[in-house]
Write a structure and sequence with these properties.
Elements lengths: L5 E8 L3 E3 H12 L4 H8 L5 E3 L14 H27 L8 E6 L8 H9 L6 E6 L6 H15 L3 E8 L11 H9 L2 E9 L5 E10 L7 E6 L2 E6 L3 H18 L8 E6 L4 H11 L7 H10 L6 H12 L5 E9 L3 E9 L4
Parallel strand pairs: 4-5, 4-6, 11-12
Antiparallel strand pairs: 1-7, 1-8, 2-3, 6-7, 8-13, 9-10, 12-13
Length: 349
């Protein structure tokens, strides 16, 4: 497969950020009696700051029903999605009316009509726009979304717009000594990222995609709808389960082009947490500097679920500007599913 499509526009949007200590000192810590060991766990998540639409120190939603949270989802997600989409369109020099497909990924809310309809209207994209909504796929949704946008742009010869928007703070749970919940509250953040995928032009070419699912590890990563919002489950076995799949997935993706790991100039890996990144680096034989972009995005923005890999990929792309080379993007989600995308950055003219 070679889509021939290129990512020609990039954009992101985030709500205000607070230092990691803010969330511990003002919400989570008092709820667990200031436990020092749990504080070490919370503060070792790799996040220096996180973005939240709903700051739990200002508005505690942890006791709200799922219905009440869903009533607020579109109003919270739409400004983020719109901000990222407008930035991507401007970056690509493409008008909203030129877009043929709008692909929206989000796992933090449900509404009908959905975020895709509200976003299309906000952008003034026109009544003939095709829409695709990827829901509840979690952190890896951006990559199958990128695949769909690329195939559309390649076959229909029109630009496509991919927008990932998440409001994880909408699903704050009561503070708990459950380690899965401590880690979930320490990692997740809010934000949006968007890409314009064009049939021709300069940009990051989308070359191939691959996926792998290990159903035996499906329970290691969960996003469960409860009467009190959506509840995240992150098993301690998750990094090792990712590690078992990542080598074969990457090698298969590269082999289709006669490539090897040493041929890859840039690695964009979803920062699901510090241990996930370390396991991926170890299994792929990468030194710590190769995943610096992933670690920096985690530190500066937290894990925003689906938009995060696009933010990392943008940094990798920027770092390769003018140099060119092969790029691999990797993300992980429920299933347990890994997605990989092979891309090619523009080289010297």
């Amino acid at each position: 497969m070679s889509t021939g499509a290129v990512v020609s526009g990039w954009g992101c949007a985030f709500p205000p950020a607070q230092p990691q200590e803010h969330y511990w000192d003002g919400f989570y810590g008092p709820g667990v009696g200031g436990d020092r060991w749990l504080r070490r766990v919370f503060m070792s998540a790799g996040c220096e700051r996180r973005h939240t639409v709903f700051d739990p120190t200002v508005e505690d939603l942890s006791a709200c029903s799922t219905g009440r949270r869903m009533e607020r989802y579109i109003a919270a997600a739409l400004p983020l999605a719109t901000g990222a989409a407008v930035a991507a369109l401007e970056s690509a020099g493409v008008a909203a009316t030129e877009i043929g497909l709008l692909c929206v990924a989000s796992c933090t809310g449900y509404a009908t009509p959905g975020l895709d309809v509200a976003l299309a209207e906000a952008l003034g994209a026109g009544t003939g726009l095709r829409r695709m909504l990827l829901g509840h796929m979690g952190c890896h949704a951006a990559l199958p979304g990128l695949g769909a946008a690329s195939e559309y742009a390649s076959t229909r010869r029109r630009p496509a717009l991919l927008v990932c928007a998440e409001v994880c703070s909408l699903h704050a749970q009561p503070p708990s000594t459950d380690l899965e919940q401590v880690v979930a509250h320490a990692l997740f953040s809010d934000g949006a990222a968007a890409l314009v995928v064009a049939p021709v032009g300069a940009g990051l070419e989308v070359v191939d995609l691959a996926a792998a699912t290990d159903a035996s590890a499906a329970g290691h990563l969960r996003w469960e709808v409860t009467d009190r919002g959506f509840r995240m489950g992150l098993a301690r076995q998750l990094p090792d389960a990712v590690g078992r799949q990542v080598g074969p997935l990457v090698d298969g993706l590269l082999a289709g082009r006669g490539l090897h790991r040493d041929d890859v100039a840039g690695w964009a890996v979803h920062p699901g947490g510090p241990r996930v990144l370390q396991v991926v680096a170890d299994r792929l034989g990468l030194d710590s500097g190769r995943l610096l972009n992933s670690r920096q995005v985690l530190a500066e923005h937290g894990n925003c679920s689906s938009p995060t890999i696009l933010v990392v990929l943008d940094r990798v792309r920027t770092g390769l500007a003018g140099a060119g080379g092969w790029v691999v993007a990797l993300a992980f989600g429920p299933g347990l599913t890994l997605y990989g995308v092979l891309l090619r950055a523009d080289g010297p003219p």
